[in-house]
Amino acid sequence: IGDVAPKFSLKAEDGKYYGLDKFQGKVVVLEWLNHGCPFVRKHYDSGNMQSLQQKYTDQGIVWLSIVSSAKDKQGYVDASGAFREKQQYSSKATHILLDPTGETGRNYGAKTTPHMFIIDEQGKLIYQGAIDSIASADKEDINKAESYISLALDAKIANQEIKMTDTKAYGCSVKY
């Protein structure tokens, strides 16, 4: 937390390459993604993840979902597969980025899906960890949980201190 976020350039669902330099001066959310993971499915099947994506992209925040699953591992998709999944799950992410070598995931220390990171306008890491406070795959727990990602983003938008900058991520292991 407080360090400059690792740079990357990854192919997206639209076939183009994107990195943090493309979004310089903006707040960026990184969400590690694997639609085969029940913890990810909890947030997508309930519409929670899409609601968060929409809420914050509507406020000018860039939301990048990153798939670090290796070829032949659960969750792996190529660009056309990511495009189909973006539509199938009604993702409101700015882009789905592909990291099949796992280099970007390892540079960030992404351990789970979902594992969330927030990078500020200066390119510094200001949050890393869980999406919320209840480490379960049960959709019913979403409304009872404290949304860590919302607390951090709302504080950032309001120019307030982010009280919890580092939480323990939960979910399925990233399939490097």
Question: What features would you describe in this structure?
Answer:
By secondary structure, this protein is an alpha+beta fold. The protein has 5 helices and 9 strands; from the N terminus they run βββααβαβαβββαβ. Strands 2-1-5-4-3-7-8 form a 7-stranded mixed beta sheet. It has a two-stranded antiparallel ribbon with strand order 6-9. Helix 3 links the parallel strand 4 and strand 5. It is globular, with a radius of gyration of 15 Å.
Strand order of the largest sheet: 2-1-5-4-3-7-8
Distance between the termini: 24 Å
How large is the count of helical segments?
A: 5
Low-confidence blocks of residues:
none
Quick rundown:
By secondary structure, the chain is α+β, with helices and mostly antiparallel strands.
Question: Which descriptors would you attach to this protein?
Answer:
alpha+beta, 9 strands, about 180 residues, two-stranded antiparallel ribbon, globular
